[in-house]
Amino acid sequence: MDVSRGFSRAELSDEDYVSAYSRVINRLLAHGEHKFFVAVDPYGRYLGHVWVCIMEDTVDFVPTAYILDVETKISGLGIGSALLERAEDWARKKGAPKVSLRVELDNPALNWYRRRGYRERAFILEKEL
Question: pTM of this prediction?
Answer without folding.
Answer: 0.73
